[in-house]
Amino acid sequence: MTPTEHDPTAHEAGSHGPSPREHRAAGDPAFTVRDTGGLPDDISERLVDTFRGHLAAREGGMAFSVHRAGEPLLQLHGGCADRGSGRPWSADTLAVLFSGTKGLTATLAAQQISRGTLDPQAPIAEYWPEFAAHGKADARVHHVLDHTIGLPYVDPDPASEEQRVDNQLMAARLAAQPTLWEPGTQVAYHAMTYGYLMAEILHRVSGRTISELLRTELAEPYGLDVHLALPEAEEPRVAPIFRSAGYRISTFLDEDPRRRAIVDRMYGSSLTSENPGFNTRLYHSAELAAGGGLGTAEAMARLYSLLADPESPILPAETRALVTRTWSRGRDAINDRPVRFGLGFELDDPIGTYGPVRPAFGHTGAGGGLHGAWPERGLAFSFLPNEMQSEDVDRRVKDLLDILAEVE
To answer: The whole model's pTM is what?
Structure first.
């Protein structure tokens, strides 16, 4: 249905029908609101005002989308997608998802689980014999998905960015090294290695690369604008990422030099170097299943709304229940952050990462991105920025979810 232009301050009585209302916010040509009337008017107005306030306080752009059962309820985007050219953020702007990519990978793994081609309780070596080296014969698939495998970094370190984006090389190195602890005995976020390990496991069970799986199992069947190995022709749509002043990683960790050294090995220079790789064609064309996906907030909200739908076309209800129950929880042994994981998905945690509603599942991304669902409310959401802020100071998506949580 074609959106109609209207006064952004006017909300028609009884407007909760299916017709979308799209407008440019008054005085701000780079801020667009698309409201289908699926949320109460007062909630929509407050979300718009809060989004506008955060947008005005930042240098970059961002998008926020709310969906139910695959259909949009509210879509907001605005600000600057590219500070160099002045290009505004538009409805089809792509941005790096960082660890939001892990939710895509988890969904692909869940599909294989639902088909019986992947058993989370099976030894990894059953699918990938080389992984049994150095006492890992009994390590299970779920130990990778629930971040308890004990392989938080690759040894030896990648010697170049070309090596870092080589899934097969990194997977072979991980298969050949011992774990830091007995799998399953500690939980710690595997920022990069989750992707190398799951890309290899999924390739072994499906015969397809992770980008092929994403394209054929999710992007094309469900009309999702998400990508690994982004085609070069799509590069003009990408919003370059930049860091706000004072950006830091692992903000829950004190100055423990041993664990800080592990964090440095986990991330390498991927987030903090002077010229980080995440804005390069090399990175965008790779298949980094932990943090290299690109997509839109619209696509991510639609994905999670389809996953949360009791009649989900993506996963049977019993599989969703399996992958979103608690598989690991506790204080991250490396980052000192409270965590709770399903099979590849983050779950609601004690610090309210997914707002005040429980249960919740999804995945965050470095710098402030967050994508997920409140299944008992039937709501899914995605927040996607190109300006990275440190977790301990970033209020953008927290404020939006606090308002959205008022929808019963």
So the answer is: 0.92
